[in-house]
Specification:
The protein has seven helices and no strands. It is mostly helical and 121 residues long. It has two domains: 55 residues, no CATH class; 43 residues, no CATH class. α2 runs antiparallel to α3. The longest helix is centred in the middle third of the chain and has 19 residues. The chain is elongated, with a radius of gyration of 18 Å.
Length: 121
């Protein structure tokens, strides 16, 4: 099955940086209830004021629901090796072992979340 064509890039997607979204997530993590909802509403309003289409941000906020983007085509083990190499981490270091052995907590001494997304504490 082929992925659907992506919608055209909006102005907002070129004006907002990924760090803005990261900071939003930090704020949302620290907030509860109505404050969290209000923060998200402000972010959406700001996004729409600069370009309208909220779809690019939504794809980053809810990646598990993004069926338009294909998978990397790599197994977790290959991604782990690539991360270790790209980050210049010694393969014997605790961080590298946490990445490479994430499925085997007995080797790293810690349970590390689900998949490679939970590799760092």
């Amino acid at each position: 099955m082929q992925a659907a064509a992506l919608p055209p890039k909006s102005d907002a997607a070129t004006r907002f940086r990924f760090r803005d979204l990261s900071r939003l997530f930090d704020r949302l993590t620290a907030q509860k209830g109505n404050a969290r909802k209000a923060t998200m509403e402000v972010f959406i309003d700001q996004w729409r004021a600069t370009g309208g289409d909220f779809f690019p941000a939504l794809r980053l906020i809810l990646p598990s629901l993004d069926d338009m983007r294909t998978a990397y085509g790599m197994k977790d083990k290959v991604l782990a090796k690539m991360y270790v190499d790209l980050l210049g981490i010694s393969t014997t270091s605790p961080d590298a072992q946490a990445l490479l052995e994430w499925r085997n907590p007995g080797k790293t001494g810690k349970v590390r979340g689900r998949g490679m997304g939970g590799s760092w504490d």
